[in-house]
Structures are given as structure tokens and as C-alpha cells.
């Protein structure tokens, strides 16, 4: 590149223009083939999951796709806003119980956080047993996403 600059000193100012031109040409050429704005598969999946739930249900959610899609639909689009979503990856943190539990009326946490092998923590079976007979408006617990066995 330096040999070009030595032979043609004005090329240095043309390189950014050339790069912008090539980039714009590639976007114009390939965007119609790569445009996926019309794909509603993931949104339909999340909507189907939420609409299949009874009112005031508790949904334990795992995996980023499930967490984000379901959270977006309940909070932003108002689909089943009464369904309580518990994001399982977050309940493993020690801050979750004191910062978030007040959003879930009547939900019982049998320890400080979800971790089956730490002291003062709980396994998922302990959480489910603690909430199986809860006396709130929340109905039975559902799951979305892969669940760990412990």
C-alpha cells in the first residue's frame, strides 16, 4: 500500500471513498437476497407458547432465545402480561432474590439463589416443592427451554 502512496500521493484520500462505494454497492446488490425482516417464525413461536398458558401462570424460562422473545412479548406487546416469567439463568445470582423477588407475589425461594451444590442455595426440585402448594393467583408452573436435571 505504501508503494502506491509514494507513486500516487493523492490515492490516500481516494481509499475511503472507494471503500464506501464498494460497501454501498455490496449492500445494494445483496440486501434483497439477505433481507429476513418478513420472517416471523420466532415471534410466532413465542406467541404460541404464551397464548397456550392459563392466566396468572408461572413460566420458568431458559435459553436466551426463549428469555428474550417471551420477555419482549409480555412487556412490550402485552401478550399475556399476567404470566410471571422467571429467567432461570438469573436466579443463580445472589442479587436476584433481593432485587427481583418482590415482582413475584407469593413465590417462595427456599434459599438465597439457585445452585444445587452451594450452601444456603437450593436445587430446582426444592424450588418446585416450595411452590407446589402456593396460595397465590399463580397457577401451575410451566417451562420453556432446556431444563437442567439438578
List keywords for this structure.
elongated; 150 residues; single chain; 8% strand; mainly alpha; 3-stranded parallel sheet
Pattern of helices and strands: HHHEHEHHE
Total individual domains: 2
Number of helices: 6
Q: Which blocks of ≥5 consecutive residues have pLDDT under 50?
A: none
Helix content: 40-55%
**Structural class given helices, strands, pairing?**
mainly alpha
Strand content: 5-15%
Mean pLDDT rating: 83
Question: What is the β-strand count?
Answer: 3
The spatial strand order of the largest sheet comes to 2-1-3
**What can be said about the biggest beta sheet?**
3 strands, parallel
Head-to-tail CA distance between termini: 58 Å
- Computed over alpha carbons, the radius of gyration is 25 Å
Global shape: elongated
Walk me through what this model shows.
This protein is mostly helical. The chain has two domains: 33 residues; 104 residues, no CATH class. It is built from six helices and three strands. Strands 2-1-3 form a three-stranded parallel β-sheet, with helices on one face. Strand 1, helix 4 and strand 2 form a beta-alpha-beta unit. The chain is elongated. It starts with a helix and ends in a 6-residue tail after the last strand.
What topology does this entry show?
Layout: H1 2-7, H2 11-34, H3 41-51, E1 58-61, H4 64-75, E2 84-87, H5 95-100, H6 124-131, E3 141-144
Parallel strand pairs: 1-2, 1-3
Helix pairs in contact: 3-4
Amino acid at each position: 500500500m505504501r508503494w502506491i502512496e509514494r507513486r500516487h500521493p493523492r490515492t490516500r484520500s481516494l481509499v475511503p471513498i472507494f471503500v464506501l462505494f464498494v460497501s454501498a454497492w455490496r449492500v445494494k446488490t445483496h440486501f434483497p437476497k439477505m433481507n429476513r425482516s418478513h420472517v416471523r417464525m420466532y415471534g410466532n413461536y413465542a406467541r404460541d407458547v404464551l397464548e397456550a398458558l392459563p392466566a396468572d401462570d408461572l413460566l420458568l424460562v431458559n435459553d436466551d432465545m426463549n428469555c428474550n422473545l417471551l420477555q419482549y412479548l409480555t412487556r412490550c406487546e402485552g401478550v399475556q402480561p399476567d404470566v410471571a416469567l422467571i429467567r432461570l439463568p438469573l436466579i443463580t445470582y445472589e442479587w436476584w432474590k433481593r432485587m427481583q423477588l418482590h415482582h413475584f407475589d407469593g413465590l417462595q425461594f427456599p434459599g438465597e439463589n439457585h445452585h444445587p451444590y452451594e450452601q444456603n442455595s437450593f436445587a430446582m426440585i426444592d424450588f418446585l416443592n416450595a411452590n407446589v402448594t402456593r396460595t397465590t393467583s399463580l397457577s401451575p408452573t410451566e417451562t420453556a427451554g432446556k431444563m437442567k436435571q439438578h
